[in-house]
Amino acid sequence: MAALVQSFTQRSSRLGSVLRNRSILCSSHPLERQGRNSARHIHARATEYLQNNDVDLTDSQRTVRDAISKICSQYTDEYWLKQEEIKKFPAEFHRTLAQDGWLGICMPQQYGGSELGIAEAAVMMQTISESGGGMTAASAVHMNIFGLEPVVKFGTDEQKKRWLEPLVAGKERACFGVTEPNTGLDTLKLQSQAKKNGDHEYILSGQKIWISTAQNAQKILILVRTTPLDQVQKPSQGLSLFYTDINPSVVEITEIPKMGRAAVDTNTLFFDDWRVPASDMVGKENEGFKMIMHGMNAERILIGAEALGLGYAALRKAAIYAGERIVFGRAIGKNQAIQHPLADSWMKLEAARLMLYHAARMYDQGYAAGEYANAAKYLAAEAAFESCERAVMTHGGMGYAKEYHVERYLREVFIPRIAPVSREMICNYIGERVLGLPRSY
Ligand SMILES: Cc1cc2nc3c(=O)[nH]c(=O)nc-3n(C[C@H](O)[C@H](O)[C@H](O)COP(=O)(O)OP(=O)(O)OC[C@H]3O[C@@H](n4cnc5c(N)ncnc54)[C@H](O)[C@@H]3O)c2cc1C
């Protein structure tokens, strides 16, 4: 930690002065520090725009929250509504975060990043979503924040320089290609193949589905089979990972019309005879699944944080509306049937938040098992869904009107419930790994 802090404070920070407080991470527990030991102040109400005095944030998390809030305040509710209407990728939002160095929050400093932890990246993603940008804003940068972790961990120095620097600088965007139409969550059975052609290239063929941002990305991190399933000892063997240019002449990309997040595309990909340089393979041949697994807990934590943000955004809108809307001569928020579900949602979001940041802290300390990351993603997505639904109902008819934004949140909040892993598969994981119950599938 000391080396990290020292190098952090020495770096020529493209995040400006924003993150220099990282060194404070070494100070005492936040709750013991002056001014933090009091109860939640009245100005910390959930109706505040991105209130920033959760007593349990570290100083570096608080600094991230402050800085990201400022950036996001330039991107109003109307901006996100408009992007949704015109189905346009929020390129300027992506650019702003890149310019200020935020896309490299978890990346090595050597390649332009800041080397902060998942605990800080989770604050960043929660704040982006909570600002009202929701899953649209989060998904516009999500892949770039931690998606290339397999490259960071297993790539060569040459690859890292070639790939991480343009990603951090916002010059290139990446998408992630794992899911396939015929196999779904049964990832190990995926059917896309790469066949070696001489020493210098592989030929890829197959299909992928639900690949977000493929229309706007230049690169893809793609998992394909290099050794047929019937020739490996375990199904997790024989898969390989490539990070390569999306070649539009051989990769057919078709957008999937979908329920929400219209500004950020999601697509099917068909490819045949796609020649990919062998130098674009990440790590060793046939070990791709192990590498993908490496970043999965972190991804669940980040998606959970994005869900939380949406839940708080919805709750804020609902609480403000409930305080202002007068029916039968009084604010609707005076009715316990309106007030109590919102109070209940705040408690559930906070409980999920505690689990999520606990998981993030453990991840940053090197804990590799997945129960907390999975549970946190599950709880955050469910709490956020309930909060969004209640926000719509609190608004009555206006909850159904686009100009009040909560219907957009409700449509978007399904995403973290489904992806990157479903509720059911998380329950399978907990049942099997934590409770020791027999595998059910
Ligand atoms: C908006 C959006 C963006 C996405 N972006 C990406 C992306 O960028 N890259 C990418 O690779 N993928 C992406 N995905 C795909 C996503 O990760 C998958 O949709 C998700 O993993 C579920 O897989 P599936 O849709 O094939 O569901 P299926 O595998 O078909 O499962 C369908 C349902 O059956 C349940 N089920 C299946 N097996 C079991 C079992 N054994 N026990 C209990 N229940 C079971 C599942 O939980 C689910 O509810 C995205 C999806 C969405 C909706």
From TrEMBL:
Domain named Acyl-CoA oxidase/dehydrogenase middle: residues: 175-273
GO molecular function: acyl-CoA dehydrogenase activity; flavin adenine dinucleotide binding
Record's keyword terms, sorted: FAD, Flavoprotein, Oxidoreductase
Annotated CDD domains: ACAD
Cofactor annotation: FAD
UniProt xrefs under Gene3D superfamilies: Acyl-CoA dehydrogenase/oxidase, N-terminal domain, Butyryl-CoA Dehydrogenase, subunit A, domain 2, Butyryl-CoA Dehydrogenase, subunit A, domain 3
One protein family per Pfam: Acyl-CoA_dh_N
Listed SUPFAM superfamilies: Acyl-CoA dehydrogenase C-terminal domain-like, Acyl-CoA dehydrogenase NM domain-like
Similarity comment: Belongs to the acyl-CoA dehydrogenase family.
Protein's name in the database: Acyl-CoA dehydrogenase
Organism: Talaromyces rugulosus
Lineage start: Eukaryota, Fungi, Dikarya, Ascomycota, Pezizomycotina
